[in-house]
Amino acid sequence: MNSPLHQESVENGSPKQNLEKASCISALTLAYQSLGVVYGDLSTSPLYVYKTTFSGKLRVHEDDEEIYGVLSFIFWTFTLIALCKYIIIVMSADDNGEGGTFALYSLLCRHARLSVLPNQQDSDKKLSSYATEGSADTWDSAFLKSFAEKHQKFRNILLIFVLLGTCMAIGDGIFTPAISVLSAVSGVKIKASELHENYVVVISCVILVVLFYIQHHGTSRVAFLFAPIVIAWLLCISSIGMYNIIRWNPHIYQALSPIYMLKFLKETGWEGWVSLGGVVLSITGVETMFAVLGHFSALSIKVAFIFLVYPCLILAYLGEAAYLSQHHHDIESSFYKAIPEPVFWPVFIVATLAAVVGSQAVISATFSIVSQCCALHCFPRVKIVHTSSKIYGQIYIPEINWILMCLCLIVTIILRDTNRIGHAYGLSVTSVMFITTCLMTLVMVIVWKQKAVVAASFLVIFGSIELLYLSAVFFKVLDGGWISLLLSWTIMATMFIWNYGSLKKHQFDLENKVSMDRILASGPSLGMVRVPGIGLIYTNLVTGIPAIFGHFVTNLPAFHQVLVFVCVKSVQVPYIREKERFLVTRIYPEDYGMYRCVIRYGYKDLQQENYDFENRLVSEIVNFIETEGENEPTLRMQICTCSGNSDDEAVDVSEQMLSYPNQGETTMQSKNIGVLISQDGHCKRPHLKEESVHILRAREAGMAYILGHSYARAKKSSSIFKKVAINVIYAFLSRNTRRPEVVLNVPPTSLLEVGMIYHV
């Protein structure tokens, strides 16, 4: 006789089949969603690739051989870089599902001691997302690890390398909206040739202002429109491509032969080589596929690219080349000229919408990059606003948004030409791709434990292609590329100075810690009157007593009976599970009433604005006290306490809510605090240690927040460059960035600041 479970399995399919079906549906759904977020930038490249490629002296050599050569370069570049490198190889190098430059750097830092972040602890390696288990080190990986650990300069150079790639990626957030919108709007001149170029620039600027103005609403409110727009755009350009192939040159497919690349370089020489800076624009946006990996999945992004994006774009490039082979004089506006007359205006509207979608995706990615840099102390503190309560990671940064808008408008107004913007854009894109290739080479050896020969082959194959394009775009520096260099080096200098100043501040704190003997000699009272309450002293140190506490001991007659040294730090992982976020330890014997709480965040974690921090902190401390010395430190409890009133107050000692079925008890939430209540409505008080009761009574008396406000000054013997960097630039950034108490969400009425000056 068949069991009910067996009958259900027969009727509905086996669990394995159902799981595979659900996974397939989930992958297809994510693939659909990824089209609007990931591929907006990449799919709008046909708007300006041919125009930029033939913008130089190459126009003198316009014939079918040159057009065939450019098409061959576009096809093989798109196939080798976008498909083979990113889709097949790089997408596998995720950091707990996250991608991008910082993900690769994070992987390397965890598997080798490459990180320059302060406050790294051995306990961080026990985090579930920190796992580095795998095959044993090979000779190659062991050699690289040993070399990196012994040479501080190598680690600093690697950090600068990563920062440079990050700055170039931020530059994409400036150039993508400018070139995409300007290219789309310029199509109107095909039907209104008398329209002056100034009007095109003005219309583009208006669209850019509107685009940046609506950023504060977040992408979640309009994201449902993104995918249909990109799909409609891809279907439009692929259909037009097939139409042009059939009508103008059915044999255009012959250009896919790599022989035409060699002919192109041989016949065009120097001009042909320099024009490759326009070809590289065909792969703008491939880095975005990897950077936004955490919002989707590798499978969904691969499915969307292989089955829709790749064939549609190849058809679009083939069709435009087929049209150009019969219309050499239309090279300056080949994309819009190749559109059949009856569908011109619908395609123009879709092109403009697609340009906006592509810009939106890059702007959102820029917000994420800046947020990650802030978490790793590589960017000044800025205001980060959560734009979605349902979708994690969708953020808006007001300061960055308006800076990007101003820079976009400046680039659009000054350059006024998609060719010159394309030269700057190509330099940013190629630099980021080459940096990714170098980091991937290290990942292959250190993380994947591949042989050095395999990693070197990857570097040679893809690195040589990218260096070819990088050398080509460098010769366009004077023709617009200088803006990319100026912006990237300015941003990198800002990030490096901020990181340098932050590290020096931490070094000062380490060198000026309060002596442990001094504290012990003062006794449990610390030589002061201990008043009721909890004092939270924020510090950058995970060990020792910060210097600001010495000022209190010396100058104040009283202090709180419970002292908690709070350190908020970043770890080289993307996310940290909530139950692993707090790390509580004791300082000195029990009667001193001193504790340390380290709060850990990953580089993609966002500090919660409406976070019941005080109750959570007290809960973790009490749980530490109750479980101290036990064999199972992961024990979680629900603790009820009574105030002076008859009403019971409760503190949730952890996220986990236990139920006791034998006693008929359930757990409920009230005011974000867990309350353990029996079925008859009475509060049940588990037995607490005296120290825990002491903490809870101190909590009822109130909390005070003590922050050190430091001012950096360069030493008199420092060089003029260091004095400018510290006394001028770092000081300016410190005064105009978001203050620490705002970032930490400290109540102003409970805040006490201590000023200190340190010399570096």
Automatic annotation (TrEMBL):
Listed Pfam families: K_trans (PF02705), K_trans_C (PF22776)
Membrane topology label: Multi-pass membrane protein
Domain of life per record: Eukaryota
Keyword Metal-binding tagged: no
Main localization category: membrane
Subcellular location: Cell membrane; Membrane
Residue intervals of the K+ potassium transporter integral membrane domain: 30-521
The keyword Ribonucleoprotein is annotated on this UniProt entry: no
Transmembrane segment boundaries: 67-88, 157-179, 199-215, 222-246, 273-296, 303-323, 343-370, 391-415, 427-448, 455-475, 481-498
Alphabetical keyword list: Ion transport, Membrane, Potassium, Potassium transport, Transmembrane, Transmembrane helix, Transport
Residue span, K+ potassium transporter C-terminal domain: 532-759
Family, similarity comment: Belongs to the HAK/KUP transporter (TC 2.A.72.3) family.
General function of this protein: Potassium transporter.
Full protein name: Potassium transporter
Organism of this sequence: Coffea arabica
Name of the encoding gene: LOC113742910
